[in-house]
């Protein structure tokens, strides 16, 4: 079971969203706690809101006072109304909202039932209820509820979705567009990169690359981006696909904004020093490119080497999966430029350039790699036992609605609420 906790300053909007479901006969009220009841058990938005008004009047300083929580069992779980009531009561009590007014709605308009809980996070004395470690506590409670009511464990399903997303493109399997989309749409939520080159280095782990395009539109030069599937050798393995097919965030303008944002957040980043130390140690301890890469893989760092047609290295990029950051060698320091690695590996392997001359030219200039490595499972270390496994459920549950069968209307509603808050701040 996945819990999603939303906060807003719009109590009426949140109640209205759920009430509209009732009017369409796609929802019903299962439980009311400390709410003002009506004789006929029918409630308008205004009637429901009256139960919360004394709490909001007691505290006018808390901007996001409204809680909108959804509890989502696995679609295979058959949960009775009585169980839903018990689950909602236990969840709210353990989260610290047991004495608050709240109303529980059961939604049935998609292929799985789930419940929504609307409440406020200020008590009757006007004190804001602590949300410290809220997500961690919520996930722990969900695990307890799964065991108590014999529900499907969310972690297993989310892991499967996670594995599906972070999987290299297999051009033989077909449906290239869908495979690329599953990577491109979600990668920015996990990794930080500052240039298109760094972005391409990361994409190369998934057998994908990009290529800039230029053209004239209505008398103005326009730049675009194509996504290209690759085979295991780094050669083009399918037709280029326009970035627009994968959503606005996959396009060049959105990526450039992301690059600028990441440059600010990575300035003085502490993990950069750890990466520099790891690369320095690996370079001193190895004499070949293959050994160097294997050494860094042991530290959860992937290395992407780019060579020209003569075999000379012109770029090297490090992908630190621990900090989830991508760094061109020159960005780490002059001592990690392409020349450093050319000189080091050529010193110990002087015949490497001769070997390159005998090889067929690659179809993509960035993808000539002479090393043969033992295959390793991409991103497997993100699921290490020393990492709280619920972090995965939290991360994926937050931005993978399709993985959990989320109501798209609910997803759109949450986005509209965020936009309203943003426009409200702008007007002020």
Helix content: 40-55%
Strand content: 15-25%
Distance between the termini: 39 Å
- How many separate helices? 17
Number of domains: 3
Give the overall average pLDDT: 82
Rg, alpha carbons: 26 Å
Taking the sheet with the most strands, its summary is: 5 strands, antiparallel
Short description:
Pfam families: Relaxase. This protein has about 425 residues and is of the alpha+beta class.
Task: Please provide a written account of the structure.
InterPro entries: Endonuclease_MobA/VirD2 (IPR005094). Residues 416-428 have a biased composition (Basic residues). Residues 403-428 are annotated as: Disordered. Residues 17-149 form the MobA/VirD2-like nuclease domain. The protein has helices at residues 11-23, 45-50, 53-58, 81-94, 134-148, 154-165, 176-184, 196-204, 252-265, 270-285, 289-297, 329-332, 338-348, 352-358, 390-399, 401-404, 408-427, and strands spanning 2-8, 27-33, 66-72, 102-107, 114-120, 208-217, 220-229, 241-242, 301-307, 313-320, 325-328. It is of the alpha+beta class. It has three domains: 2-158 and 398-427, BirA Bifunctional Protein, domain 2 (2-Layer Sandwich); 169-265, no CATH class; 270-378, no CATH class. A five-stranded antiparallel β-sheet has the order 1-3-5-4-2, with helices on both faces. Strands 6-7-8 form a three-stranded antiparallel β-sheet. A three-stranded antiparallel β-sheet has the order 9-10-11, with helices on both faces. A hairpin with a 4-residue loop joins strand 10 (313-320) and strand 11.
